[in-house]
Design goal:
Thiol Ester Dehydrase, Chain A; 10-stranded antiparallel β-sheet; 5 helices
Length: about 280
């Protein structure tokens, strides 16, 4: 079991970052998603594109063997090297605008240890609050899971079957170039997204892993098309199983009275991620 002191010292820990929402970065994201670069300064930053900004400026010598930042700077080292983004919730009071200088305040809210089928797990909840000139704009509650190193060749637990009541669908082909460009845009060096040999031989995955935030961005973007003129107030994300670059996957969903419910279907028919959008009345 984890010693109590790392958990207790982590809860309430904060860090702050300030960034300007650079137009060029957002336009590069449009191009990465195969969209025309049409955004202009002053336009709202599309939901969940804040991952393009505020990323820690980590020196190469401070990266681990997996290319990810070594634990201990903000998130303590719990002795669990494998990191998985598990989703969370985003609440939008007012959109962030391209060109604005934004302050991001991150706070560790909870640390919980459990034991699952894959061994010891540590669940960390972090709140990210975004403000402009003292005005609160957006909050993301982020859930992160830390796990033990996987044994090469270990079987992946079966996933939950995807819903069968979709009324709209879209196919995504997650080629390595898409994953590489997204990694570059968010300044993220985790090798599972671009180093296929490492991903297979060390992490035990069948191919490059699609970034959880990228899948969420695609799902939210598709959901926004369904909302029409209604304003997005919040959305919930739950990551359930990984997606890989070895085959296309499907975005599906259906409209609801509150907004839309969407999910990503893996090639074997299980649910990789769910997103629920809540629109203003």
């Amino acid at each position: 079991m984890m010693d109590a002191s790392p958990k207790e010292s982590a809860i309430g820990r904060t860090e702050q970052a300030t960034d300007t929402l650079d137009l060029r970065q957002a336009r590069l994201m449009q191009l990465t998603l195969d969209q025309p670069a049409t955004l202009q300064k002053g336009d709202p930053l599309p939901p969940f594109w804040h991952y393009l900004y505020f990323n820690p400026q980590i020196m190469a010598s401070d990266l681990g063997a997996d290319g990810h930042e070594q634990l201990g700077r903000f998130i303590p080292d719990f002795g669990l090297p494998r990191r998985m983004w598990a989703g969370g919730r985003v609440t939008i009071e007012k959109p962030l605008l391209l060109g604005e200088e934004v302050v991001k305040l991150s706070t560790i809210r909870a640390v919980e240890e459990k034991t699952g089928r894959s061994g010891r797990l540590c669940f960390v909840t972090v709140d990210h609050d975004f403000s402009v000139a003292g005005e609160h704009r957006l909050r993301e509650t982020q859930n992160i899971v830390y796990r033990e190193t996987a044994e090469p060749g270990a079987a992946t637990p079966p996933g939950k079957a995807a819903p069968v009541n979709a009324t709209f669908v879209r196919t995504i082909t997650p080629d390595p170039v898409l994953l590489f460009r997204y990694s570059a845009l968010i300044f993220y060096g985790h090798r599972i997204h671009y180093d296929a040999d490492y991903t297979r031989t060390v992490e035990g995955y069948p191919g490059l892993v699609v970034h959880g935030p990228l899948t969420a961005t695609l799902l939210v973007g598709l959901g926004l098309e369904r909302l029409g003129s209604r304003r997005l107030e919040s959305f919930d994300i739950r990551a359930m199983s990984p997606l890989f670059s070895t085959a296309p996957f499907i975005l599906e969903g259906h409209d609801t009275d509150e907004g839309a419910t969407l999910w990503a279907r893996t090639p074997d028919g299980s649910t990789a991620m769910t997103v629920t959008l809540h629109a203003a009345p």
